[in-house]
């Protein structure tokens, strides 16, 4: 029972910590609606699930033990963060009809971006390799390890979905912020750019 409680506590702390995944879910929900936020959260957790399976099958250990492969994954993650920064830059107002068509035609993008965002994050691999095995009972089977990983998935999906829905509900309040409202769209690209710089710095130092 203590293992389960420790896992729940750590999973909540990790998932409640704001990061690129949560930011993506909130931005998707605010710009495209709650359903887009849910799709983004599903994509994020599918990316996490890749590492759950990798941990269970032992592939995560192989990745971390191979410095070249690990560095390659880090660089992929950095490039994608830079891409997220670029694509989140405000491009100006679209017409109402054009905006509706764009939302319908790109409905899958929040899911795909969420998936790529987390599947290219080597820190997720490190978490499952170093933390998750310590939270399961000694001698636990692969099925038990998988159950804990799925629990982490469920926790992350719940947190990111709620964050997206909350962001969507609070978005109309920005209409009363006057000039400050013009600054808000630039926050996501600034955050993604800062995360890109931090990730690059961690690689070169």
From TrEMBL:
Cytoplasm listed as a keyword: no
Stretches that traverse the bilayer: 42-64, 71-89, 145-166, 186-204
Keyword Lipid biosynthesis belongs to the record: no
Membrane topology per record: Multi-pass membrane protein
Pfam family, one: LysE
UniProt name for this protein: LysE family translocator
Annotated keywords: Cell membrane, Membrane, Transmembrane, Transmembrane helix
Compartment(s): Cell membrane
Chief localisation class: membrane
């Amino acid at each position: 029972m203590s293992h389960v409680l420790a896992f729940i506590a750590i999973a909540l702390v990790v998932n409640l910590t704001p990061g690129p995944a949560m930011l993506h879910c909130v931005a998707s929900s605010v710009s495209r609606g709650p359903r887009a936020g849910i799709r983004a959260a599903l994509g994020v957790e599918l990316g996490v699930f890749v590492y759950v399976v990798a941990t269970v099958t032992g592939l995560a250990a192989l990745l971390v033990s191979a410095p070249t492969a690990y560095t390659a994954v880090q660089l992929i993650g950095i490039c994608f963060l830079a891409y997220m920064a670029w694509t989140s830059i405000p491009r100006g107002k679209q017409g109402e009809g054009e905006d509706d068509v764009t939302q319908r035609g790109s409905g899958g993008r929040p899911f795909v971006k969420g998936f790529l965002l987390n599947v290219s994050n080597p820190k997720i691999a490190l978490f499952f390799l170093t933390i998750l095995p310590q939270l399961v009972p000694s001698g636990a089977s692969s099925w038990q390890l998988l159950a804990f990983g799925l629990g982490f998935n469920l926790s992350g999906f719940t947190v990111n979905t709620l964050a997206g829905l909350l962001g969507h509900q609070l978005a109309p309040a920005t209409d009363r912020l006057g000039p400050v409202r013009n600054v808000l769209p630039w926050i996501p690209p600034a955050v993604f750019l800062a995360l890109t710089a931090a990730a690059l710095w961690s690689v070169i130092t």
